[in-house]
Inverse folding.
């Protein structure tokens, strides 16, 4: 299971690093997780070439909160016109809404996959 990042309709991870996949939703989307904006600038691993090892040569975005805008920098991927995307900006309210929506959808799907009697078990535990 991994997270996809579409920005303006473009798969940011595939366009940035074709050998990487997004990290697990539990790691990235959880409440107060690494994608939640904070006043301090920080680097966030969002993809890896080895999903079980988040820092194994994937994609890192630099995140900061600038007023009511979430800014991701340290990017480098082509847009549809052949230009280079090196920064993206999101309105804070919409950004938080999307993170929370995606986490809820993943959590609901994970709960359904672990219903009693289906032979699977819920593996949501602490993330290191």
């Amino acid at each position: 299971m991994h997270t996809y990042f579409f920005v303006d309709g473009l798969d940011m991870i595939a366009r940035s690093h074709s050998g990487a996949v997004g990290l697990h939703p539990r790691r990235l989307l959880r409440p107060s997780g690494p994608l939640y904006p904070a006043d301090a600038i920080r680097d966030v691993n969002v993809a890896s070439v080895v999903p079980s090892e988040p820092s194994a040569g994937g994609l890192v975005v630099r995140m900061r909160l600038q007023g009511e805008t979430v800014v991701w920098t340290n990017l480098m991927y082509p847009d549809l016109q052949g230009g280079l995307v090196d920064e993206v900006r999101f309105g804070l309210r919409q950004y938080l809404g999307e993170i929370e929506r995606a986490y809820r959808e993943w959590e609901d799907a994970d709960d359904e996959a672990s219903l009693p009697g289906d032979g699977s078990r819920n593996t949501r535990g602490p993330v290191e």
Q: What stands out?
A: The beta strands are 6-7, 10-11, 21-22, 42-48, 59-66, 69-78, 84-91. The chain is about 25% helix and 30% strand.
